[in-house]
Design goal:
The complex is a heterodimer of chains A (about 180) and B (about 500). Chain A folds into two domains: about 90 residues, Orthogonal Bundle (Rna Polymerase Sigma Factor, Chain: A); about 90 residues, Arc Repressor Mutant, subunit A, CATH 1.10.10. In chain A, about 70% of the residues lie in helices and about 0% in strands. In chain A, α2 packs across α3, α3 crosses α4 and α7 crosses α9. The radius of gyration of chain A is 18 Å and the shape is elongated. Chain B is an alpha+beta fold. Chain B is elongated. The chains are: A mainly alpha (about 180), B alpha+beta (about 500). Chains A and B meet through α2, α3, α6, α7 and α9 of A and α1 and α2 of B.
Chain lengths: ~180, ~500
């Protein structure tokens, strides 16, 4: 199995087989990114398709330095595409009503998809909170970038982030207390 | 504050970094095929857009051309049409206002500051191009002959109208139109020279100022500004232009092309064909023969078509030389199978799959084709796209409002794109792309039968049946199996004549 640098070079040379190998090796991980935002599997696959078209275009100019850099870049593309997908389908609302409304609960998703309870509980948050939390904490976007991507203004995003953290912290505290 | 959460953020980041949602082979195959399909689309539409723009531009330019303009040489259309009116007028005015017997009596006041006394004018003062004809030996002879005729004539001058009559009679006597036209120009110039010289003689004879030489012709050529930018005396070039525009181009054109020209000066065709495609395989070894035997092909629900626009470059009688631009899309469904073993193969718009012995769906795409053996069967749509320049010779005969025609020609490839699958030796399928195809400038030879009906003088609708024999071997598999196609097409078109 070729290492990433070698594989990327083959992709730049236009080898379709290398493209397939790249897709095959990375798609599960990127599907995980997509499904942190989009709960429906079919929607996440649609998002993945769009994201990979952008990824393959971008790879031609991509200068590989490390695995973390590569996957960080890909995560950002997939997460941006996921937000676009949600926006197109008007899946989240920017009103305060949304703050009290839970998104698709984990009951609708097979538990085996979530290898970590942390992410399982993240999925229980209101969708707009999840998006801001994902973009800020996991993808590493700034509030200004989040505003550009989602249209949620910085102040609101900070509010969503605060509430998301608060709820998750409560859950962690409960978990810790139960264990004690 | 945002980043200080007792390690909670880093815990989530770590959880997310290891988070994967496994995709099945089926899902990956479907996504991958969709990505491939989408990635190629921009190139396709770029070419289609460019081709469409060329077609529209060509149609627009043809639409703008008035009848007869195809033969009018290099003169700008505006100059020709406008100067034609101007010079027609100026000629009739000359004929009316300058009868030879009035020259000595008429003294026209000079306009502006260009006053020149007659005795100051010598032959050298006449621009060389205005005298050019009389300076060549042949022209000099003709001038002399004309001068003798002039002496014999009552008025002693030869008008340009006379010259024209001479020219037309020469045509009537069987001289070629081109030489007659050249003669017409020469005679016009000679006539002008003699007109000038004749009045000079008369002016000298009368002992008066030769008014004709003092006259500024610009007031009789109201639009001479248009031609020269400022009022100038009438020049030989005016007359040449005059002759050019007076010339009966339609007659000239019909003599060139024959009176039976159906299409007029030009036409443009737009057509659309449904194509029926069949393969031609040629095996060059036993291994190739085995592949050939295992090959099955059927059209299924797929649809091939070609569409384009053509215009005539030249029409001679019932024959026309045509060229244009054509797009053809050949879509086939190939069915390869091994000897007697049937698998339940299915196709979806996103990918290809079959059900293996255990009942599991196995998706087939470019990367996993090697897993599919000839014991199994693969059906896949192959797509071939071409943008071509067809060049045809057409014979068209008209019977009242009906037209019947035949065209023969070739096509030149300017773009082609291929994608699909083929079985190669080693009992494997593999995908092929444009790189597997040998690009040729020469695409095919073709013949078409045309049957049309004149809706109006300008519009004809017609049906067409065609045959294309594609040249050489399309696909270079390196497997002793060469592939090409023939195409039967049925379609319709419209022709706009100009």
């Amino acid at each position: 199995m070729a290492d990433w640098k070698e594989l990327l070079q083959e992709i730049k040379n236009g080898q379709e087989k290398a493209q397939w190998e790249f897709f095959d090796r990375t798609s599960d991980k990127m599907m995980g990114v997509a499904m942190r935002y989009i709960k429906e599997r079919s929607g996440a696959k649609d998002c993945l398709q769009e994201a990979y078209i952008r990824i393959f275009r971008g790879l031609k100019k991509f200068d590989y330095r490390s695995d973390e850099q590569l996957f960080g870049w890909m995560n950002k593309i997939v997460s941006r595409e996921a937000v676009r997908y949600i926006q197109r389908h008007k899946r989240y609302y920017l009103t305060d009503e949304d703050l009290t409304r839970s998104s698709n609960g984990p009951g609708r998703l097979p538990d085996k998809l979530f290898k970590d309870d942390l992410l399982k509980h993240l999925a229980e948050l209101p969708e707009s909170h999840q998006i801001v939390f994902n973009l800020y904490v996991i993808e590493g976007y700034s509030h200004r970038e989040i505003e550009e991507i989602t249209g949620i203004n910085s102040a609101t995003a900070r509010s969503y982030l605060f509430r998301a953290r608060k709820k998750l912290q409560e859950w962690i505290n409960r978990k810790v207390n139960v264990k004690k | 504050m945002d980043n200080n959460n007792n390690g909670m953020d880093s815990a989530f980041r770590e959880a997310a970094s290891n988070y994967k949602i496994p995709l099945s082979r089926e899902e990956k195959g479907a996504i991958w095929m969709a990505i491939r399909k989408r990635s190629k689309r921009p190139v396709f539409w770029a070419w289609m857009g460019a081709g469409g723009a060329v077609l529209l531009l060509g149609a627009f330019l043809l639409y703008q051309m008035p009848p007869g303009s195809f033969s009018q040489g290099e003169l700008p259309e505006e100059v020709v049409s406008e100067s034609a009116d101007v010079l027609k007028k100026s000629q009739s005015e000359q004929e009316l206002e300058y009868p030879g017997d009035q020259h000595t009596d008429e003294v026209v006041s000079l306009s502006g500051t260009d006053d020149v006394a007659a005795d100051e004018i010598t032959a050298d003062d006449i621009p060389a191009r205005d005298r050019g004809a009389s300076e060549s030996p042949v022209k000099a002879d003709r001038e002399e002959a004309e001068f003798e005729r002039e002496i014999e004539s009552v008025d002693g001058a030869v008008s340009t109208a006379d010259a024209n009559e001479e020219t037309h009679s020469a045509i009537a006597e069987g001289a070629t139109q081109e030489s007659a036209w050249v003669d017409e120009l020469n005679l016009l110039s000679d006539g002008w020279s003699e007109f000038v010289s004749g009045t000079t003689v008369k002016g000298e004879e009368a002992g008066t100022l030769p008014g004709i030489l003092e006259d500024d012709f610009s007031d009789r050529i109201p639009h001479s500004d248009f031609i020269y930018g400022k009022p100038t005396p009438l020049k030989l070039s005016d007359l040449a232009l005059h002759a050019l525009t007076e010339f009966n181009w339609e007659e000239f054109s019909s003599l060139q092309t024959g009176d039976e020209s159906i299409a007029g000066s030009g036409f443009i065709d737009l057509y659309f064909n449904a194509d029926i495609v069949s393969n031609r395989f040629r095996a060059t070894s036993p291994a190739g023969q085995r592949l050939k035997d295992g090959y099955r092909d059927y059209t299924g629900p797929w649809f091939s078509f070609s569409t384009g626009a053509m215009t005539n470059l030249k029409t001679l009688g019932n024959f026309s030389l045509l060229a244009g631009l054509e797009y053809q899309r050949i879509t086939r469904e190939f069915d390869f199978r091994s000897h007697g073993v049937e698998f339940n193969m299915k196709y979806s718009p996103e990918a290809y799959y079959f059900i293996d012995d255990s009942g599991e769906v196995v998706w087939v795409d470019g990367a996993v084709l090697t897993a599919v053996r000839t014991e199994q069967r693969l059906r896949a749509p192959n797509v071939h796209e071409f943008v071509r320049i067809p060049v045809l010779v057409e014979y068209m005969k008209e019977y009242n409002n009906l037209k019947l025609g035949l065209s023969l020609g070739i096509a030149v490839n300017i773009f082609e794109n291929h994608s699909g699958y083929i079985m190669v030796d080693g009992d494997q399928f593999r995908s092929f792309e444009s790189g597997d195809f040998e690009r040729r400038w020469f695409s095919d030879v073709r013949a078409n039968l045309l049957a049309g009906y004149n809706l109006t003088d300008q519009w004809t609708i017609y049906g067409r049946a065609g045959y294309q024999h594609h040249a050489g071997d399309w696909l270079s598999t390196g497997q002793d199996l060469e592939m090409s196609v023939t195409v039967l097409s049925l379609g319709m078109g419209v022709r706009r004549s100009f």
